[in-house]
């Protein structure tokens, strides 16, 4: 019998999530097997309220019974209605059809679980609390927050007695601000920047943590630090802090404890908590953090009665670093002094709803050991992480005298003099300061700030005894989206290009998909997200991440139906300078359609589409209302066009024929996508309505811009690409339009001229239109403007501009010069979809049935990719030796692929046991059931077309 494993049990895309508020959560799993042809014929899901019941086969919450189905994804829970706090333990039994054995057999997965959060408002007995401002007034070092300066974050604590042995303890927490929780001397969880960024006027995430291991019979202490974050700190380029109308942070915590004797009690924030200032003097996401370790309150997070030496936070990789000096019994004198800690104030609750966080939290994902590269100017130490990241620097100190001030500054590049380049950070100071406590060993990292940097500079202010030791570690921080894809080929520069896209994704997917992580911006720009989202889905599993963000997008929609340009929305009415209304931009606001559509295609998620359907319809209603003629010329607001196209266009708020064409093309495509989604949802009349809308807009597009010879009245690469990608041309003119596009590229000596928008369509459209040769040529182009140009200048991420920095000319003069901006990296999807050839089936979403079709081109001898879909890991690896092609693919169990083997007509194809059923041009077609296959064929790759303009 061949061996099948059931893996990747997920609930709402997450691994064993705690505190869901989805009442019918969806379950999924994957099958793994090396055998060919493995299929699932039936499944049975059992859900029990305890692990023991599940193990005993008692599914007291839900037993799906045996369901004859090959479905393994999005199976909605359909058992006893789930109440707040419910624990759900589940496994799945699957029946496998394996052609290599005659009997059908079943197998049971390992157990997994999820828990429900607090579903009703009435479940919350905790009160919102804020610090007494007196803690700042009486503390000579503390800073009161203002609209321009961050204030000193407050600490909160509460001691309590647990009367008996604890069987379960769960804490629910949120804040207006950012919280870090501690219990009995230990940090609760590893999450950073919680609650994450949402539109805090409308919704606040709460987090759920299992703290059973941290709470015990006897005296206990729960403690929190409350920082500013997006709530009261600087957001975007807004001149003033306090985006949500308040500079006061507040906290909500509810700890629920169940004892062995069945008793339950709740310890919640209220006026009995006490507050104080602490070691963090100021912290702001953009500005940085100032921390004076001499101000730490020893034992502040411990109950007074149990002095003990505790372990430090145990950051990943440093678990168990022992910090001496906490909780010396002598310090309890200070704690016992009731003046030191003042009662917290109960404050009114927000009007925003509390919702469970439904995506992977932000964490330290990786640490890097930087190189010390010099000392400019004297007295500073300069380090290179070797990689542009977002995160912070952690310091490990030994024997550094108390009071020594260590300042960390961050930058993405160095100036020509070899010092830190910070001009492009604009207002963001990105400076952290640590004042040393003077313990034999200290470990410190910031709490409520992060920076985009490759280089950092340390300045030490104070004496340095010979045995003092300082070590700096760079921590890479982002949303913990699981890796999904890997790409590699024979060209090292292309490999670096792919990696640069992956890094820019990692560095920018921090709670929301941002444009950049370094300057005073870091906003959820919709245009950037939509052009990159498919690439993002190739690199990482971002289903939960985008599901969360779509709620931000809908929250940011106006009452009239206008989708925003950034989500969460900036508030234009307060403290605002700049662009006017931030919404409605063509190709930006349209992300409100494109993202759910792409999530449906890649993850098969229809429920998400259903949930946002009303908002999506309102958007198209709004466009239609203002553009009765089928051309989208009105209400374009900032109208970014093909942002940063060549020659560079960064005008906003203006109109031009190109911008009109682009806007109209995106409207047509919105309508086409809506028609398709409506069909998938069974909304037939809406499908007809949107199909008709698409056709009307297409007709208007053709009338306005299409010439009889297939030329467009606006002759840019992007204009042709949009016309091709969005099916805006009559079939008989597609080939002619493609030739005009290719001529345009050739006239630029095989260079692209597309901006953020057009570039996402460039290589996919060239390939689909039969010009993979041109796509390869653009991919491998090394001179400006091209993908490899920044790689050859030493880029480790995708830059905002091709020439953000050049060896010949140095830095681009504009202040808008990010070195970590993923938009121009949207070519990543093409590497997976068309070079490695792992592609969605045109009809079937979600990869249970998919296409394998690599397009080979001059310049690459091999390419290989793996890609974990919701149905398992697909692999494709090809190699060319002369005209001989060897291609190995893996089709995961319970899936099938249509395989297109590159091969010259009339030559032999070795299909490894599969039957070639037909041919499409230079591809032999076969159907592949699950399994690994190696094909060989003959395929001639033509050399690149001659250089030079025609
Ligand atoms: C951002 C972009 C964004 C653009 C809109 C810039 O400031 O960094 O990535 O899409 O504005 O035009």
From TrEMBL:
Residue span, Alpha-L-rhamnosidase C-terminal domain: 837-909
Gene3D superfamilies to which the protein is assigned, alphabetical: 1.50.10.10, Galactose-binding domain-like (2.60.120.260), Immunoglobulins (2.60.40.10), Maltose phosphorylase, domain 3 (2.60.420.10)
Reaction catalyzed: Hydrolysis of terminal non-reducing alpha-L-rhamnose residues in alpha-L-rhamnosides
Residues covered by the Bacterial alpha-L-rhamnosidase N-terminal domain: 166-303
Coiled-coil features, chain-numbered ranges: none
Keyword Phosphoprotein applies: no
Keywords: Hydrolase
UniProt enzyme class: hydrolase
Name used for this protein in its record: alpha-L-rhamnosidase
Protein source organism: Oleiharenicola lentus
